[in-house]
Design a protein that fits this description.
heterodimer, A: 330 residues, alpha/beta, Rossmann fold, 7-stranded mixed beta sheet, 19% strand, B: 355 residues, 6-stranded parallel beta sheet, 8 strands, 10% strand, globular
Chain lengths: 330, 355
């Protein structure tokens, strides 16, 4: 399999789907002439023209709603929101409209829409440009929410999302765009929505993560091996539907669990996963479930504070050592 | 011939008598449907919020007379009349208000969320302004696919104060979308008058800075509404010119069935109902022009009475949705790890104290 970046995997898939289905179109701010704020849509305007790659004015509520309406009549728009922070001005369209239209109208109409956007942040982006809101959408029945961690999953989930007849929130990460990995060339390869993956087998402790935190967890897991701690990494890949059985099976095997996510600690994704584990695997736990998440502040700009406000590899290592207390390394 | 009759004949010159009678019948049907709906609400057959179209019959019937089957309609939550005038039978509409499986949205939507895919009635929406971006999106799809037709974005007067309206005006003009911004201006958004809420009370002017043409139309005159809609519809379809229609009418009752309407002067309301009743005014006109006689008017009342009663009977007879179908239509594309019929049944049993 060729090794390509996460960015290239997305760019390739968007191009392939545009070529495959004339009803697929891309919309968003600066995606065409500017070639994408993060170059995910680079070259696509030139290849497919302005009918298929549509530069929008800065009007997220308007063009997200427009994309939903167009999807109701059979188009398959893929909308880029420059960063997830800006979706807040369109959240009524996503939560009150896209997520409800199929169910609320008795299944008479479908909304085959993808909204793709990078979430989280590193690099001093400040209070309004570093947030993680995927849990807001994962909270909402009727949406599907995916958050790939690798180029392989980025490609497979993007293809699945575009071919899916429901609204899909596709969560990316700025820090992952340049990461590399193997991606199959097969045109029909998809990663199913709603299915987690054990990215690394282990026997001592389960780390549940998604998106950038899965990349962190994989690095930490390698390092822990050297200390004789065997870490299993469960990559959620989808936040809604949530693959509870895969999480629970892993925890039943390792008897210890840590959940790591970039979002704020209270009411975040880690809370949902920790609650699920205590509900379904309480008797299997040898230690309390540890949660590693963002500090609860408007994300500060200063470099030292900014770095300390987000979970790091060190935070995860600390949590692993905490849950491993009382258990001798093999 | 007396003067009034001469005037009536002149007003209806060139009109087809059967069409005029049909408009009258439709308006009467909407009026009676809403009166009985109000009654059903009081009897607790209908829950939630319930907004009536009484006083707006000419606006609705005039619009529908101008549309073609290719066209699409998005409305707000005051939409019972729109879906009926578009040709959906009153029975499934009433069944939806009753929350029954036989309702137009399978009982999952309710009064504010009626839908009929076949008739291109694309839904009633209950977040003020939310339907407008959707409507321009439908118009975008028509353009994209090279299909005929226009899209109506129906809304109330107060909706012209929300951001979604302006973003939609900009996109519609920017991208030459075949859309009619159809403002039902009954003077009030709940208890807030147009002049209390809008720095530009002439709503038809609100497209000026977007270079969108606007017109004020007497929303109580079915023929005036029809003619304006036809003209602007054609321009939208053929030239990609969106338009604003400001249809002025009088709201007969409070905002919703449960609104006591304490913020309006009762004398003005009484006077408004007398002067601006589109149904009575149209009946008088048709009678004066000798297009209908007393027997026709009486027969129409009886026909409509029967039709609405049949709708109520249909709604009563339709079954309630089943608990095990709670999650049906949750997703259009199958996906693992979601709850199903058994989960729904178990939850319902626990909730009902049966477990």
């Amino acid at each position: 399999m060729p090794i390509i970046t996460y960015r290239q995997a997305l760019n390739d898939t968007l191009g392939e789907e545009l070529a495959r289905d004339p009803n697929v179109l891309l919309m968003g701010e600066e995606i065409g002439v500017f070639q994408g704020s993060y170059r995910i849509t680079e070259g696509l305007l030139e290849e497919f023209g302005p009918k298929r790659v549509v530069d929008t004015p800065i009007a997220e509520e308007g063009f997200v709603g427009l994309a939903i309406g167009a999807a109701m009549l059979g188009l398959r728009p893929v909308v880029e929101i420059m960063t997830i922070n800006f979706i807040l001005v369109a959240i009524d369209q996503v939560v009150n409209h896209a997520s409800k239209i199929h169910y609320m109208f008795g299944g008479q109409v479908r909304v085959p829409l993808v909204i793709r956007t990078p979430s989280g942040g590193t690099g001093q982006l400040g209070a309004t440009h570093s947030q993680s809101f995927e849990n807001w959408f994962a909270y909402c029945p009727g949406l599907k929410v995916v958050a790939p961690a690798t180029p392989y999953d980025a490609k497979g989930l993007m293809r699945a999302a575009i071919r899916d007849d429901d609204p899909v929130m596709f969560i990316e990460s700025l820090a992952l765009y340049d990461t590399k990995g193997e991606v199959p060339e097969d045109d029909d390869f998809v990663v199913p929505i709603g299915v987690a993956e054990v990215k690394k087998q282990g026997s001592d402790v389960t780390v549940v993560s998604y998106s950038r935190m899965t990349a962190v967890a994989m690095q930490v897991a390698q390092r822990m091996e050297q200390e004789g701690i065997s870490v299993e990494v469960v990559d959620l890949r989808s936040l809604r539907p949530l693959d509870r059985p895969t999480i629970i099976a892993s925890v039943k095997k390792t008897n210890r669990a840590i959940v790591i996510a970039e979002d704020w600690y209270s009411y975040g994704v880690t809370a949902e996963i920790a609650a699920t584990i205590q509900e379904e695997a309480f008797d299997y736990l040898d230690a309390p479930v540890q949660r590693v998440a963002g500090l609860e502040v408007p994300l500060p700009y200063a470099q030292e504070l900014s770095a300390a406000s987000k979970p790091s590899a060190n935070s995860l290592i600390h949590a692993i050592r905490t849950v491993m207390k009382g258990k001798k390394p093999k | 011939m007396a003067k009034v009759e001469e005037a009536a004949h002149a007003a209806l010159e060139g009109e087809n008598a059967d069409e005029l009678k049909h408009y009258y019948y439709q308006m009467l049907l909407l009026r009676r449907f809403e009166e009985r709906t109000s009654e059903m609400y009081v009897k607790a057959k209908i829950g939630g919020y319930c907004h009536l179209n009484i006083g707006e019959e000419a606006t609705i019937v005039g619009l529908m007379a101008a549309l073609t089957p290719d066209d699409y309609i998005y409305t707000n939550y005051r939409e019972h009349g729109y879906i009926i005038a578009r040709g959906v039978p009153p029975g499934p509409v009433m069944a939806e208000l009753f929350g029954k499986e036989g309702g137009v949205s399978g009982g999952r939507g309710g009064s504010m969320h009626l839908f009929d895919a076949e008739k291109h009635f694309m839904g009633g929406y209950a977040i003020v302004g939310g339907q407008i971006p959707l409507a321009i999106g439908a118009a975008y799809a028509l353009r994209y696919q090279g299909k005929p037709g226009v899209v109506v974005a129906q809304m109330g007067d107060a909706t012209t104060n929300i951001g979604a309206f302006y973003e939609s005006l900009n996109l519609a003009k920017l991208w030459s979308l075949p859309v009619l911004f159809f403002i039902v201006n009954n003077g009030f958004g709940m208890g807030t008058s147009v002049s209390m809420g809008s720095s530009e009370p002439d709503l038809w002017k609100k497209g000026d800075s977007f270079r969108i043409h606007g017109e004020q139309i007497d929303g109580t005159d079915v023929l005036a509404v029809r003619d304006a809609c036809r003209r602007l519809r054609q321009k939208a379809e053929q030239e990609g010119e969106p338009a604003i229609l400001d249809l002025v009418s009088f709201r007969f009752r409070g905002h919703s069935v449960i609104d006591a309407d304490r913020y309006r002067d009762p004398d003005n309301v009484r006077k408004g109902r007398e002067e601006h009743d589109p149904l009575r005014n149209f009946a008088t006109l048709l009678h004066e022009a000798e297009i209908v006689d007393d027997a026709f008017l009486k027969a129409s009342v009886e026909r409509v009475e029967k039709e609405v009663q049949e709708a109520i009977d249909f709604a009563n007879a339709s079954p309630a949705p089943r608990f095990e179908d709670m999650y049906v239509n949750m997703y259009a594309t199958e996906v693992p790890n979601i709850p199903g019929a058994e989960d729904a049944l178990r939850a319902a049993k626990i909730s009902r104290g049966e477990a």
